[in-house]
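Same chain as my last thread, 350 residues:
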Amino acid sequence: MRSIIKAFVKKYRSLPLDTKFVQYLKSWYCLYLHPLNSTMLSRRNVRVKVLQALYAQNRDKTLNTKKTEALYRQSIQDSYKLYLLNLFQLYKVAEYVYEDAKIRSAKHLPTEEDKLFSTKLFDNPIMQMVAQSNGFLSLVKKDKLSRILDKDITRKLYNEFAKTELFKAYLLNSDSKVSDDREVLLALYKSMIKNELFDELVGDRYANWEIDKSLVVGAIKKTLKLKEFEPDFYERYYPDNLTVDEFGGELVYKSLHFNEDFSDLIKPKLENWEMERVAVIDMLLIKMALCELIYFPSIPTKVTINEFVDISKVYSTIKSKEFINGVLDKLMKQLKNEGKINKKGRGLVD
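reply #2:
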């Protein structure tokens, strides 16, 4: 079976990413078969995006289920676009080395450093993998990412990095290896994302930049560390349908569809608290957890509880983790006694 799926994906990998059946197969291949399997969005990331969509719906009652689902999926797409944008900015900064070479070669009295200057920052195998990827460049064109970048910022990002000792030493190394190219590109990217101009540029265009920054940075680093160069490297970071639709999409839909049922379950467990007094984020997290406990049979109960308690530490109040953990513990005991938690597989129920 593995070999059949692998052969199919290899044969039809050039089909558009929006071809649904092929998209599922590619997702399955990247997750389970690819020797360097990677995925940008984990279930934790998807849970946070579902939380964001549900919070928006809670604040804006004009958002029905369909619009909330669309908001969730747009957030997923924006995460991938952030990956593309970051990589494209790195590409353009590295490419600016040609402009630097022109300036140096035009000098009437070039220095020794000018004479030894090379364009290997862009000509190395890693950047050429990006430059020669028609698929990546097509996505950049499709999403009009070049319109987001600023030429002046690109120049400043390059000039800032060109002053570093690491870059100067890299240029003087006439026997550079791929490991050297990788080291300098990782340093360039690190310098880039620390730059306030770039940070503001991306943040102004994508509201989810601060939340998604760590996962995007991780994906870029994995891309630069690839040991097998391939033209469709970017596909492995495309949001997979197994996580986005079968998990995240269902979590959005069921959380909204069974919202009142969840409220009825939660209310008796609040003791001296009124439903209206519970923080919105806390209530949403409890309802999402209930949704997973009841309607997602393949997710272990412990995983669900731990995940939502951990998310509360980042997105809610200091005391939220204890409150959420306590309420969920009571609810889980009740649901188990009533036979409403039915997990499939060994070790999925405590």
